[in-house]
């Protein structure tokens, strides 16, 4: 009697495997949310066993944080390339909105997780609280000396951006994220950072 042929799983370099895991997890969380995420589904999507997946990420919470940190690093790198040395709040926000308009699945991922993480027991609760504060602090620094209330305006800009993105995600055929942001920016930045022309 012949032995069945064993099919070996494709071996990938550690960095490539981690990137695959992050990509599969990103897609699944965007579709189902963190609470609907199954480690078995992630493992299946990567051609791994669950123990093999845990070898790379440690835990489900560790996997979530790896996805979030990876996306933030990618977004920061891309934003830095897009804006160069500018310190114009209007131009930085416009570059961020343009980038987000090209990656609805990532924006959806963050919108779903941010809403879920409002509960204190969510593993990304502290991450999103710190991320929101860092965003507002960064905007406030850019606005200092340009407006009497940089902290208040920073909160309004962040809230406007988040709100427009949710409306766009819900109805992308009807809402052009970039067009709506540019119209809103003309209002919100009218006394702060006039458009650079063109």
What does this structure look like?
This protein has 198 residues and is mostly helical. The chain has a single domain (14-188), classed as Tetracycline Repressor, domain 2, CATH 1.10.357. The chain is 69% helix and 0% strand. The radius of gyration is 20 Å and the shape is elongated. The N and C termini lie far apart (77 Å).
In short:
This is HTH tetR-type domain-containing protein. This protein has 198 residues and is mainly alpha-helical.
Write the layout of secondary structure elements.
Layout: H1 14-32, H2 39-46, H3 50-57, H4 60-83, H5 89-101, H6 104-116, H7 125-143, H8 150-170, H9 177-188
Helix pairs in contact: 1-2, 1-4, 1-6, 4-5, 5-9, 6-8, 7-8, 8-9
| Helix coverage percent | 55-70%
Number of spatially distinct domains: 1
Number of strands: 0
Q: Give me the number of helical elements.
A: 9
Ranges where pLDDT stays below 50 over 5 or more residues in a row are 4-8
Shape from CA axes? elongated
Known CATH architecture: Orthogonal Bundle
Q: Ends: how far apart?
A: 77 Å
**Oligomeric category:** single chain
The CATH topology assignment is Tetracycline Repressor, domain 2
- CATH homology-level superfamily: Tetracycline Repressor, domain 2
Order of helices and strands: HHHHHHHHH
Structural class: mainly alpha
Report the C-alpha radius of gyration, rounded.
Answer: 20 Å
Top-tier CATH class: Mainly Alpha
Looking at this protein, list some descriptive labels.
Homeodomain-like_sf; HTH tetR-type domain-containing protein; 9 helices; 198 residues; transcription; mainly alpha; Tetracycline Repressor, domain 2; transcription regulation
């Amino acid at each position: 009697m012949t032995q069945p042929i064993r099919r070996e799983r494709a071996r990938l370099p550690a960095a490539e495997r981690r990137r695959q895991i992050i990509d599969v997890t990103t897609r699944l969380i965007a579709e189902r949310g963190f609470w609907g995420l199954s480690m078995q589904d992630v493992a299946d999507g990567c051609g791994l066993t669950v123990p093999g997946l845990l070898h790379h990420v440690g835990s489900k919470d560790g996997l979530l944080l790896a996805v979030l940190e990876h996306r933030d690093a990618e977004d920061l790198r891309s934003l830095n390339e897009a804006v160069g040395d500018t310190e114009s709040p209007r131009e930085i926000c416009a570059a961020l909105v343009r980038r987000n308009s090209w990656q609805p699945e990532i924006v959806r991922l963050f919108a779903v997780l941010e809403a879920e993480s409002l509960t204190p027991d969510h593993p990304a609760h502290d991450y999103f609280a710190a991320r929101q504060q860092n965003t507002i602090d960064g905007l406030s620094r850019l606005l200092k000396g340009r407006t009497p209330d940089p902290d208040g305006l920073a909160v309004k800009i962040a809230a406007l951006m988040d709100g427009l993105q949710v409306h766009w995600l819900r109805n992308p055929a009807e809402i052009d994220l970039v067009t709506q942001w540019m119209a809103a920016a003309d209002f919100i930045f009218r006394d702060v950072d006039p458009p650079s022309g063109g």
